[in-house]
Amino acid sequence: MMPPRNPTRPVRVGSTTIGGGHPIVIQSMCATKTTEVLATAAQATALAEAGAGIVRIAVDSRRDCEALAAIRGLTGANLSVDLQESYRLAAEVAPHVDKIRYNPGHLFHHEPERPWQDKVRFLVDVAARHGCALRVGVNCGSVDPAMRQKFSAGDSIGPMLHSALEHCELLDSLGFVRYCVSLKDSDPRKVVEVNRRFARERPDVPLHLGVTEAGLPPEGIMKTRLAFEPLLREGIGDTLRVSLTVPNARKREEVEAARRILDDLAAGRVGSSPGMERPGLDIVSCPSCSRVENEAFVELAEKIRDLTRYAAEYPITIAVMGCRVNGPGETDDADLGVWCGPNFVNLKRGKTHLGSFRYDEVLSRLKTELDAIVAEKRAR
Ligand code: SF4
Questions:
Q1: In this structure, which CATH number among 3.10.350.10, 3.40.50.10300, 3.30.413.10, 3.30.540.10 belongs to the domain 282-379?
Q2: 323 C-alpha vs ligand 1 centroid, how far in Å?
Q3: Which residue among 157, 178, 218, 234 has the highest number of C-beta atoms inside a 10 angstrom radius?
């Protein structure tokens, strides 16, 4: 039996409802190019058939918006759209989707002179007119810079939490209650802490759970369990996604993994991530999406995992990202960071950019850097 859940308010998203005592909704995301209408509609349908109550699609341009209108007509999946920096695109996508996800940390890039509160008012107006829900999606790699400044450099939880709370306050003051919140980090312990603290402050707001860039299976699933199991046992979480670095043809594994976590919890089978609590080499890799710049990305992540096994016992983080949109920011906290361009892979060590390398040459450079980091750790 599932543990009792927090008394969150219900938020309708198309034909499904998040929160308010409704069953936990599993989500996933299309990784096809949004402009490839048939492939994206087919993937959305396949994910819905596998059990995803909501399927997210990335939209970055007017062409993506046009594609989305066509996709809407080809799939019965409940659709959520992921807006990055172009918040104004919400007006064009809202007629075709059931939910809009915006990231508070991305509201600063376009029209920087315009206060973020005005931009949220715009999103609320659009969502209300078209009957869409909103998700305030706070992510560790792209927190509102103004909020970050209010906290000490070592505090990554405070800025995320307060950014979410401040957006909830504004949405409430605008009389818009059809929203949920997500607070994602690639570290499962931080996901637990920030969601616990948020749920204490706002037990009424439905939470979407996720470990961002959890990585390749099976490690990515084990890492996600570390965050989901304690939260769900405490009644926190109304919807969730297991983000996995898998090729397009295997995307339904995200939904299957989420289903297994929920089934295990209902059957009392928890604590199933042996060894993951110990510090060691951690590969943080994104699940890819429409923005991925080269399909070789998943293969690259797998090769990096295989190449770096020899350093498994060292507490080193390697971040592998699929695009330039999120790559530079999301690799900032890693010891080694890699993000893909169409023909070249960018590599950095800490915050220092080491250069762009061909796909067939980046691995040897990465190994050289990893050897040096391992040697430093041994010498300590
Ligand atoms: S890093 Fe880029 S490709 Fe990967 S999921 Fe995020 S936006 Fe998509």
A1: 3.30.413.10
A2: 6
A3: 178
